[in-house]
Amino acid sequence: MDNKNLSINVSNLDLYYGDFQALNNIDMLIEKNKVSALIGPSGCGKSTFIRSLNRMNDLIDGVTITGQLIYDSRDIYRDWDVIELRKRIGMVFQKPNPFPLSVYDNVAYGPRIHGIKNKAQLDEIVEKSLKDAILWDEIKDRLHKPALGISGGQQQRLCIARVLAVEPDVVLMDEPTSALDPISTSRIEDLIDDLKKKYTIVIVTHNMQQAGRISDYTAFFYEGVIIEAGTTEQIFFNPKKKQTEDYISGRFG
Q: What is the dihedral of CA 147, 152, 153, 154, to 10 degrees?
């Protein structure tokens, strides 16, 4: 893969929680402007891996990480300031988690932290981010109402808008639709398809149909190891490993 098409290069990643090894010798290339899906049964290391990409695991006591994670030619754990890193590599969580503020203040929160105070500029960022999250038309008359008063699906798109407002390169999504109804899920999937034109997306999903619908690449995790990774088409229709085939066909997991 050409380096200019590469967003993050992970090699020999081991991660321990205390004495427990949660990730074992992970190698993965994450390509720019593509959707990479991480699949596998619960507890197999998917969320641990995605959280290592923007150092969310730093918040957990007793975590030890070795190996190399290179983003923009710099080692994520040695060469990046963590605040700057999380601006560039944003995260959307499993449950919508808007701040107990207005819709507007949720989206303006990140830009304000990064020094933008001009109201006209903030207005522009809020509108653009909500449009990019396909939420503006539904919510433009409620910008100054509490974010906690909108629906779950809207809250999750608001959380995506909040990430987009600081202009990241990469958006990490940890099961972003698992708490949502089918209509909201479909909207988020359409949104992901649209967002990859501008952003690199890594998504953890327990829903294999979802991975099949929205991703370009898929990595199958099992017990802290990547069993197989490749294009989504290859993983789903022509897996090289029997374990992958068994998982995709629903024989276990």
A: -10
Q: Domains along the chain?
A: 3-248 (3.40.50.300)
Angle CA 206–210–212, to nearest 5: 110
pLDDT, one tens digit per residue, over 207-236 is 899 999 999 999 999 999 999 999 999 999
Cβ atoms within 10 Å of 165's Cβ, excluding its own: 26
Q: What CA–CA distance (Å, rounded) separates 176 from 193? A: 14
pTM: 0.94
Report the residue count for the chain: 253
Q: Strands (DSSP E) along the chain, which ranges?
A: 6-17, 20-31, 35-39, 63-71, 74-75, 89-92, 170-174, 200-204, 217-222, 225-231
Nearest to 105 by CA among 153, 138, 134, 148: 148
pLDDT in tens, 107-164: 999 999 999 999 999 999 999 999 999 999 999 999 999 999 999 999 999 999 999 9
Containing H/E element for 158? helix 152-164
Alpha-carbon dihedral sign for residues 201, 202, 207, 208: positive
